[in-house]
């Protein structure tokens, strides 16, 4: 309920910018395994080589390892009794007006969806989830691996002119 309310109240300007003009990129994902972590690092490197400033936020589920402690993160412990995320890092990330915000999860995470709903990003990009269409300006139909999802997101976004 809080997530849907945040989605309705968010009046941020939404528009896709040509990739070549984009300067700031946000990446949000849920920790799964070491391979996903490596795929995200490779994606960041690719974006930085394109001259983009990249910020990353990860959702760290209970009993999952935070590989290398490279990225800002939030956990279920940051959720208040009333369903609000009480993390300064997550709030700062949500308030940042990224040109593109990539959400790299193959299954939707309610904690991440709340941040997407309140995000100030201009263009939110994620995997196609029919019930979650209001959270994104661009959705990618991809049923393969995380690496495949990342590559599809990157390739489609680069084509925006």
Q: Topology of this structure?
A:
Layout: H1 2-9, E1 24-30, H2 34-49, E2 53-59, E3 72-74, H3 88-95, E4 100-103, H4 110-118, E5 124-127, E6 138-140, H5 146-158
Parallel strand pairs: 1-2, 1-4, 2-3, 4-5, 5-6
Summarize the structure.
With 161 residues, the protein is an alpha/beta fold.
Describe this structure in words.
- The chain is of the alpha/beta class and 161 residues long.
- It has a single domain, classed as Rossmann fold, CATH 3.40.50.2000.
- The protein is 34% helix and 17% strand.
- It is built from 5 helices and 6 strands; from the N terminus they run αβαββαβαββα.
- A 6-stranded parallel β-sheet has the order 3-2-1-4-5-6, with helices on both faces.
- Strand 1, helix 2 and strand 2 form a beta-alpha-beta unit.
- Helix 2 runs parallel beside helix 5.
- The longest helix has 16 residues.
- The termini are far apart.
- The mean pLDDT is 91.
- Name the average pLDDT: 91
Q: Please give the order of strands in the largest beta sheet.
A: 3-2-1-4-5-6
The ordered H/E elements are: HEHEEHEHEEH
CATH fold annotation: Rossmann fold
How far apart are the first and last residues' alpha carbons, in Å? 36 Å
**CATH architecture annotation:** 3-Layer(aba) Sandwich
The largest pleated sheet is described as:
6 strands, parallel
Strand content: 15-25%
> Residue share in helices?
25-40%
> Mind telling me the CATH superfamily name?
Glycogen Phosphorylase B
Oligomer: single chain
Low-confidence stretches: none
Q: Could you say which structural class the secondary elements and strand pairing correspond to?
A: alpha/beta
Number of domains: 1
Give Rg in angstroms. Answer: 15 Å
Top CATH class? Alpha Beta
